[in-house]
Design the sequence.
């Protein structure tokens, strides 16, 4: 599967990057292609392209705050392909979260 | 160049068992060291975040953090409690490793943020967590965290940051 996502938290120094690490690790372990954009203290990194979003089978938004470019995911939302959780929930339950992504 | 990782910011086998007491103890320490100007203002930011949603992440870890005008310099301060403690009464999740982070409203130093981010990423790794859980001295924890800092600075130099 191709999975894309965004992680962001209030201070942008801890949970943003932990959630990224947890998702990348779990998805790679299962053989999925994954790209996570981080919106944190270092600005936007690893920015997703329109093409990458369009091609994604599932989208994970691990966000505790409003994010830049949220409308990029509107089409995927209409298709029911977007899951949104607080980053700490994603870190804590990364295996269940990826299970859910696989079922979308 | 100011370093983020300091021995004075590491507490091992502390006997405190309540979240608020732990946050207060570490906040008072960072005030003494000059990273924050006002304990109450910083604590308010930290506890407000905790009320919204606890910063526990499973893994025996919590990462309380606050972005506040009271923060002068970014910091991370670490405590390993003597026994696992219930972090937030709304769940029974226990923690032993507490990383408390402070960042100023205006983040000027990207390298510091990068170090905080890298420490956070490393916490996902079980081996790294076990090292923190099993470390027998402050010095050992200091070296573990310092390695991360040194690595980021070395990388920064290469990239001309």
Sequence:
């Amino acid at each position: 599967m191709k999975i894309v996502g965004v992680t962001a938290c209030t201070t942008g120094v801890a949970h943003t990057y932990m959630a990224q690490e947890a998702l990348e690790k779990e998805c790679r372990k299962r053989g999925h292609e994954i790209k996570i954009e981080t919106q944190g203290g270092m600005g936007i990194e690893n920015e997703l392209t329109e093409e990458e979003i369009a091609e994604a089978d599932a989208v994970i938004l691990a966000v505790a705050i409003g994010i830049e470019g949220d409308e990029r995911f509107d089409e995927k939302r209409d298709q029911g392909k977007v899951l949104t959780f607080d980053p700490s929930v994603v870190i804590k339950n990364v295996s269940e979260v990826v299970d859910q992504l696989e079922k979308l | 160049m100011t370093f983020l990782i300091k021995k004075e910011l590491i507490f091992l086998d502390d006997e405190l068992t309540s979240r608020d007491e732990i946050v207060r103890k570490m906040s008072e320490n960072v005030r003494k060291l000059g990273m924050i100007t006002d304990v109450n203002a910083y604590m308010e930011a930290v506890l407000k975040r905790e009320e919204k949603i606890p910063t526990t992440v499973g893994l025996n870890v919590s990462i309380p953090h606050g972005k506040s005008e009271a923060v002068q310099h970014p910091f991370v301060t670490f405590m390993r409690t003597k026994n696992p403690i219930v972090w937030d009464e709304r769940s029974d999740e226990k923690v032993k490793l507490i990383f408390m982070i402070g960042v100023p409203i205006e983040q000027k130093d990207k390298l510091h943020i990068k170090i905080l981010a890298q420490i956070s990423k490393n916490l996902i790794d079980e081996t790294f967590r076990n090292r923190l859980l099993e470390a027998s001295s402050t010095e050992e924890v200091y070296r573990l965290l310092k390695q991360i800092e040194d690595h980021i600075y070395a990388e920064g130099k290469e990239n001309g940051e």
